[in-house]
Design brief:
The protein has 189 residues and is an alpha+beta fold. It contains six helices and six strands, in the order αβαβαβββαβαα. It has a domain at 26-149: Glutaredoxin. The strands form two sheets. Strands 2-1-3 form a three-stranded mixed sheet. Strands 5-4-6 form a three-stranded antiparallel sheet, covered by helices on one side. A hairpin with a 2-residue loop joins strand 4 and strand 5 (99-102).
Length: 189
């Protein structure tokens, strides 16, 4: 087998293992920012605590009370205007199984406990069914799109496609070279 093909194959396989190690994040940061002591939001706060308690040390949960000066400053700096916001690794909007989920306001309106659980599990386990979206302010722009494209399944697919394209091109070149080097047998019997 050709050395070049073996080298390309080895590089592709090594890049895939590096990607999987690079994306095994360990911990997820969750910030719950809003009027967390407000009576009407207590059912939502309990739902958040119920889901996040399942993950133990795998996630860092911070509670920011909008009723305090520090909480108001945090929400203003991060462009958060809802009474309750759940930021998972800095994002409150995710694409979950092709459906946009916004972790703001009351549980049961734009998000559910199952949505929160699925996104946390997906982020922790690098599942391809969970993609962070730019928050409403659009501070990410192209950078957010680039990050979404650098997810392991996308990189895996790109590496496989590049390997296949290289092998096809190499095969075509080899056939063209063989055609040129074969003696012309026309006219000989």
């Amino acid at each position: 087998m050709n050395k070049t093909v073996l080298i390309i194959f080895a590089v592709c396989m090594l890049s895939l293992t590096n990607v999987s190690f690079a994306y095994s994040t360990g911990k997820v940061d969750v910030v719950v920012a809003g009027y967390i002591n407000h009576g009407l939001l207590q059912a939502s706060v309990r739902a958040i605590k119920e889901v996040t308690s399942k993950y133990g040390d795998q996630i860092n949960v911070a509670w920011v009370d909008l009723a305090t000066n520090e909480g108001a400053k945090y929400c203003q700096e991060h462009g958060l205007s809802a009474h309750l916001n759940i930021l998972i690794n800095g994002k409150y909007q995710y694409l979950l199984d092709g459906r946009k989920v916004t972790f703001q306001w009351f549980e049961g309106t734009q998000w559910s406990k199952n949505d929160l659980d699925a996104v946390l599990s997906g982020v922790l386990n690098n599942r391809g069914n969970v993609t962070p979206l730019a928050n409403a302010q659009g501070e990410d722009g192209v950078f957010g799109l680039v990050i979404a494209l650098l997810r392991p399944p996308v990189i895996l697919a790109a590496a496989i496609i590049l390997c296949v394209l290289y092998l096809v091109r190499r095969s075509r070149k080899r056939k063209a070279m063989e055609k040129r080097t074969k003696p012309n047998r026309i006219g000989k019997r």
